[in-house]
Structures are given as structure tokens and as C-alpha cells.
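User: For a benchmark we're assembling, each entry needs the component sequences followed by a predicted structure for the full assembly. Here are entry 17's components. Please fill in the structure.
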Amino acid sequence: MPKFKIFLASIFLLLTALPVSAFTFTKGRIIESDEVAQDQYYLSTFGIQAFLEEKGSVLASYTTLDIDGQKRSAAEIINAASKKFELNPLFFLVMGQKESSAITNSTVTSAIDDCWLGYASCKSARGFTAQLYAAADVITNKYLHDLKTKGSTVSGWKVGTPKTTVDGVVVNPQNNITAALYTYNPLVGRWGGGNYRYGANSAFQKLWDEWYQPKKAYNYPSGSLLRIGDAIYLISGDVKKPFASMSALLSNYDPNKIIPVPAVIGEQYITGQPIRFPAFSLLQNPDGGVYLYAHGKKRPFTSQESFKQYGFNPAEIIQASADEMADIPDGEPITVNQVDPRGLLVQNKVTGAVSYITPQGERSDVIAREIFDNRFLSLEIIPKSPEEIAKFKMTKPALLKNGTIITTKKDKTIYIIADGKRHAFKSKKVFKKYGYQQKYIMPVSKKVLNLHPQGKEVDLKKKQQKKNKKK
Amino acid sequence: MSLIFSAIVPNNPKIFLENSQDNSSVTAIANSIQELEGELYFMKPDTILLLTEHGSVVPEAINVNIESPILADGFKNGLTVDVGFITQLKNVINATAQSNLVTVVAESTIPQEIITPLSLLLKHLPETRVVIFSMANFSLVKHQEFGEILRQLCLETNKRMAVIASGHLAKNSTKENALDTLCLNFLKNKELEKILHINTEVIEKSKSDLMRPLATLIGTIAKMNLEPKILSYEHLDNENQLVANFTLK
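Assistant: Structure for entry 17:
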């Protein structure tokens, strides 16, 4: 039975909610692939909650009875239904917006309360959870099941066979999910040359295009600071580490450089251990041992002498819990007669050259002022004789901090430093799309640029859908 | 990332009812709450965590109310619950070995003992989201440990969080009773940990409903270098009412 009737009731809400932007409707492929439509892990409960909050949705504060009679949040209920019916949670969010503006509406309406997914007549499935389970059940267990087993849905939609929609557009579905969507709602609607009064499947695709990001579409380099939902994270490879204290953030990073990103992008990073303490904090275990928190590790002081030798102040010791300490990986013990575990900045008394001595006792020359300003402003410079400096084994020159954005006067390419390499943005448009700001680009000399080997280009992964737009 | 406000507030509705009468205790409480409310208004939290011994109490677990909105006198649109925070809490709790520590209920109405502190503090911020925790029958130390979980969640969110312990000190007693004396001394001397180890008999005898919320609050604000400031301590309606604020040193 076609499900489009109820759709009429809520369509007018939709027409005002959709922003107008360049959009090309791909009528035969509403979602790029069945795999994407059935990616039940695309958003976690947190991701759904963050998504609802960033859209200002009433559903962010919405609780109702779940299928088991327990009261849960909308995000939890959507996540559970996505898993049960193996559908992408975004599928329901887009459907909910299309049918009842549930995602951008900040107040609850009867359309949201009773019929948010526009399923059937509302009488057979009234209420948030009933709508969700009924719609998900019919899509997965009826339409998609029929397509897989019989090659056609109950109303005759099938892959590779043109059929005319109720609003008079011939559509040749290119995948099962598209055939299922036309069975659910057999209209193209206003954004695809169909009936102007309805949003229908063209509205679904328009919203999907705006909200869906392919996995790894954005590949933020290590050192980037992202605000995802209501938390701030440091990106380190595929991991996002939440900051658990403002001082941990401020001690090492510039909060002005935080980039707000949509929840769907943030979800693609694994959540790592929180960053709880500022760099070089002194932490005390409940059992009494004192550690230096450096470079994400805890380094135990082996004696009071080693603690005193490097000029640490006992008043600055932070009492940490056993759990907090257990979260931090172990580092090398700090003994006497090592290099200061925070590193040293030394200046050659004869030449004036500045070098950084790593905690491991290796010497990295600071070859340019830009590098000094970027990394070592907080360290005191200690004058030393050339002989004393020569005792430290020379290694590669000091590099710029991860996350630093650079360019040179002659070369207009913009780079970001990550893992000691310079990664060029493919274009200025890509740079902007990622959310980086022009004002934080640091001009550097060619010499500094060339210190950093060329890394991977920073680009955007394109969506597949438009390749098939003629179909 | 920010716990911006923490306080102890009474929960007796008579603070409202008797406000118009010439009663010096009520005046002192009302004045101190007004000061607190002004401070809270200035800090503008996104979410308030209210810790109480009232509401749907389940002895074996700390109870959190997920109903949203909650109907409450004085709040025209009801109280909006921070559902996201509860979802996050559930996830954290489920990931630990203490998955029975918290239960979730959905109560659309709440008793006056919960409405009162919220009404007193949110007079000018009625849209602030709330999360209401009804304490369990655990020890004070276990409540403090739960407070530490709340602290971590507060630190990891970018929202501005406030935490309020609500209740009264001793009941059916004068101001000079053992529990109140100990509590006030520990607060004045900034020895919050000692509050957790007050003799159970002393607590039970006092009939206070503040101790478990306070223990949770202590866990939440631990290591934050906050200084307790007692704004008023008065006897009203046969209960000893404490208003206190914790300010950054």
C-alpha cells in the first residue's frame, strides 16, 4: 500500500524549512548506495544527539517510551531502531525532517509527536517510537526484503526498470534503497520537476546531500582542534581526544583555532582518552608517587633529588585519582643528571645560535625565528659555550608545531603541519571547506617550508551520487 | 569543560510561603538565596545538576529523571531536561563495572522539595536545562565517587554546568546539634573530605536530607580549588537551613 497520503499533511512545514541552494536532483539514485543507506553504525547515540543539538532540534530534549516500555531519549531510540533494522540513523533524521521538520523545529508539534516519519495513516502507528519502528520495519523487512527476494516491491518498483511516479516523472531506480523510497512515497516532488506542492523524494535527497558526509570525507591532520557537539577535541591520526580541562587546552593550544565541525564528521574519529592535564603537570598518585605528565605519558620521578634537580615546585603537584593515572601510559623514569624533562633551550655564547635540547639529550637547532616563536616562547634561553653544546648529539633541526598553517610569499599553496610533514591543501576552497581561517596562516621562509617534507595532500572525498545524475 | 557554579540550597517550600512575614530567619535565608540567584544569573549555566534525596528514590541506585519537560509550578513551559547529558552519563556508567549505579525514571511531576530550590535559583533563568538526581541509599563515600563521574562528564562537555546540593541539615533539633556543628566546621575549614566520614549514627539521628547530595557535590567539585562560603544558616520550620556557595579561590 503506498504510504504517501499522510505525507500531504506535513509537507507545508517542509517547504519553509529547506534552505534554497544549488541542487541537482538525481532521481534514480536518491541515496548513493544501499551500503550507505544500511550503514547502521554511521552515527552513534552521541552522534545522533550531537546532530540534533547542532540543528537546534526539539528532539534533542525529547524523551518518550521506547519499544520495551522504558522512557528513553530520541537519540537512543533512533540508534536502537537503526541497529535492529540495519538502516543508517541519518536515514531517519532526513525522513523526519522531510515529513515533519522534526530536525529543525525547536518546539514540538502534533506532526512530530504523532507522525514524525509520515508513515501510513498515523492511525496504525501513532507516536514517535511507533512511527520509527513501523517505517523501519516496512523499509527493511518488506520493501528491501522483497527487492532482494522477488526483485520488485509491492507497488512494482524495481532496480533498472523505469516507472512513472504519481506526479508524472519517469524514474529508473539504480539501487534497492531508491526503489524502496519510491515505494514509501511515490512522488518526486518540487526539487526534481515533480509536483511543486510536495517535497517528497527530491526533498529527501536534497537534505541527504546537505547532511551526509562520506566516511573520511574530511581528513583533519593531527594537531587540529575540533569542536564536535559540545566538546572540544584534539585530532591525533584517526583518534579524537576530548579535552577534560580548560587548562589542558590553553597550556598547549590556541583556542581561537578551534574549528566547529558537524557531528557526522566528528563521528568518523574514534574517541580516545581525555586530555585531563596541562603539559608538564606534576601528578601525584593516591599511593604517593609523583609523575611528570609530558607528551601524553606519565614519567615517574625516581627520587626527591631528581624532583629538586630540575627545579619543580612541590606546591604545583596535582592530586590525581587512581583511575586518572591508570588512563595515562607510562613513560621513561626521570633520574638525576638527565636533561631537564621539559627540554632545554640553549644559546651558543659565541655564535648566538639557538638549539633545543630534547629530554632525550639530542640537539635540534632552531634555524629560524618563525620556529622559535611557534614552539619555544615559553622556554627560558640558557647561554652555553660551544663546547658544552657540542656534547649533545646533533639531530634534525626543530620543526613547527602540529596544526600550524603556513604559506610562503612566492608559493600561494597553503600547508598544514602534521607529524613533522607539510600537507598541502588541494585548493583554497578545500582550505575554507575544512573550516580553517585565513587569519591564522603563518608566512614562513622557503627554508622553513623545505625543512618539512611533503606529506599527503589535504582534499575532500567527493560524494558518489552526482556521477550518476543522468540516470 | 566548565563547572561554573556550585552551591547548597534548602528545599523547604516555606521559604516562599513565609517570605512575606516578619521572620528574621526567613529574611536571612531569602537574602542569601537572592545573592546566590544573582550569582547564578551572572554565570548563566546551560545546565543545572540538582542533587536531592527527594523524587523517585530507588535505594539501590541513584535515580535520574529523563522526562522532558517536567511539569513544575512556576515554570510556564515546564523544566527542560538535558537529555544529552543523561544519555552521556548512561553510556559512561554502562561502560564501567558499575552499570547498576544509576537508574533512569520518567516522572512528569516532581515534589515541592525539588521544585523549591529550582524556583529559588531559576527565577530569571527559567529556560535553563536541568538534570535531577535522586540519591540512593549508598554510603557518603559512594555518593562522592558518583560525584567524580559527574565531574568528568562536566569537564568533557563544553556546556556551562552548575551543580546544586539541596536539602536541610538537622531536623527537630537546635542549631547546636552534632551534625550541623561538624558540617559547618568542615566547610569553614575547607575540609570537605571529612564530611564524608562523619559518623553514620550522627547523620541518622539528625534526620538531615542534605548529606548524600552534599557528598555527591563534594565528589563533583573535588580538586577544583573552590572555597566554601556560608551565606546563611538558619532554623526554619523545625529544620536547620544552610545556604552556601563554592567560589573559585
